[in-house]
Amino acid sequence: MQLNKIYNIDCFEGVDLLEDESIDLIVTSPPYNVDLGNNKYNKDSYDLYDDNKDYRKYIDNLVILFIYLKRKLKSGGRLCINIGDGKSGAIPTHADLIWNLQQYYIPMTTIIWDKKSTSNRCAWGSWMSPSSPSFPRTFEYILVFAKDYTKLQYKGETDLTREEFIKWSLVPWTFPGETKKIGHPAPFPEELPKRCIKMLSWVGATVLDPFAGSGTTLKVAKELNRNYIGFEISPEYCEIANARIK
Question: How many domains does the chain have?
Fold first, then answer.
């Protein structure tokens, strides 16, 4: 498979094309299964993806994908999953992923990403009453796993500065979500993959995003002198991502 390219294919199809032990780092944010476009907080939907699957099937599909991807990671390679829980925390998506994936990967950490904002701040539930209050969240999760070892199994060059390491090694990570309209309903900010890539890989590493979307992970990987591979089922999002990278 050619490096530094976005493939307009389903992620399961893409996994079969990857060479075993060819990826250093996976940084991705899969759809959250919150019925994007039809819920009252976000009216923009994905153009092709169904974001309202049966929850058990949704979790099972993600777990199977990440199990398949384990063979493609180098020993000591890392997997970073940005995910949010559903229904103001009533659906513990991040916990279900951790519980399932810890059987195959070594959990390294769970990073709280505090965005300091939420799209559903007025979802009070029972207003000023303990009857049925809602608890909208200003944060999401970044789940970090490792294959075989928590230590990288080969030496390389780092581009981390002293200030970055000191700041980013503390959790929570606090920075705003993406506010620019870039043709995708749920982009994450460049700061998220930037921190994951610099903290968890050497310069020249190969970074994969199996849910490439608008190409943020890939754009940042290129800017940080890493190789990249992306999978995305939407031709429109592939065009947006390629334009951003160029």
Answer: 1
